[in-house]
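Lecture notes, unit on protein representations.

Consider one protein chain, 318 amino acids long.
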Amino acid sequence: MNSHCKTESTEPVQYVPLDVSKRRLDYGLQPGRLAAVTNTREGIATLIQRLAGHPRAQVVCEATGGYERALLAALGEAKIAVSRVPPGRVRAFARAEGLRAKTDRIDVELLRRYAVAMQPRVEILPGPEVEVLRELLEHRRQLDEQRVLFSNRCETAGPTLLGLLEGQRAHLERSLQEVEARIRDHIGTHEPLRTKSERLQQLQGCGPVLAATLLAYLPELGRLEDKQVAGLVGVAPHAHDSGERTGPRHAHGGRIAVRNVLYMAAVSAAHHNPVLAPFYQRLLAEGKPAKVAIVAVMRKMIVTLNHLLRDPNFTLAN
């Protein structure tokens, strides 16, 4: 969630801070005036009706892990601008102000001050087919984590427990195969997703899982510059200099769902891709640590994939 691609306008934006919880949405159309609706379809519809009289309104809320999804989808349908900001940045802003207290009213006004100071970008909301793809990938990730957990337990389990664990592991394997089939079918039935997936997999090392992950969690791919995309994924090295001191560069942050899958793909590409494998070996020969070399491969991969989607005439080297 970077603050790039901000839209310049001569008309002032009316930031509408909104605090999301499981059952309630607290918001403030005007400073010091707090209102609330239920976090239900009816409550969200009421909120949209109240926002209809404010054409320059831009809703600002924090990412909550899912409780804001229905709200964002409804705001997108109503063509109301919305910004979803990382909670960590908002809390860091509060600490910079010296603010320690936390209530719904305080959080709403804090979000207002944060929005005025930081001017968060308007979020590009994905289409419904991308939302479905995200849900399928999230379910696949959970199944895969459980499968690994049961596999690890089977290594040390006794004969009695081993039979139970193997049965559960077999069930997880079948469920994993089923959700992977659904992901393939979902991408295959939507022409834009299928075309992009096939284009991304032209790069050796980018398989169906990485392609689906990029389509679901990195919709900016192919639209932004290389440095911006690398920053979104978290593979862009950041300077750490002060005075005459030149500190080591570190890559951190970014979208962890993309970065984790990209890492595994880079490990494969570093050994089998005809261009990236020699690049990886050259970095090792220069004395670079293995993880630094892998991150460099990750960056080259995401930059190449960005070119593949941005330029239809871009071709890969043999």
